[in-house]
Amino acid sequence: LPVTQLDCGSCKSSVPYCVATGYHLIFDDFCICPSCRFPAIYSAFTKHLEDDNKCPMCNQEIVLSMVVKIADPTPFLKKSTAEAHDERDTHDE
Fold first, then answer.
1. How remote is the C-alpha of 63 from its chain's centroid?
2. Over the stretch 6-60, which tens digit does the pLDDT of each residue have?
3. Of 10, 12, 5, which Cα lies nearest the Cα of 85?
4. pTM recorded for the entire structure
5. CA-based radius of gyration for the chain
6. By the 8 A CB rule, do 44 and 26 touch?
């Protein structure tokens, strides 16, 4: 799957992507914006914040020390996947 493709061709699920790069998320380099809670690649998001202290998604000023690398993003990803399926099912009705 190309790093910028946002839908899986096999299962048609949305692939979570980084707010800073638009690329697929990296399991062991994961964080979320402390303001909008959108996921990001930790290294890319913190680099972005060093240059521009605003989140590209919510445009809120973010204090770099508030961004925390998440060791196990599985719960966040499962919740996001479930919410995406629920939203897709609602639109199909």
1. 18
2. 777 887 778 889 999 999 999 999 999 999 999 999 999 999 999 999 999 999 9
3. 12
4. 0.80
5. 14
6. no
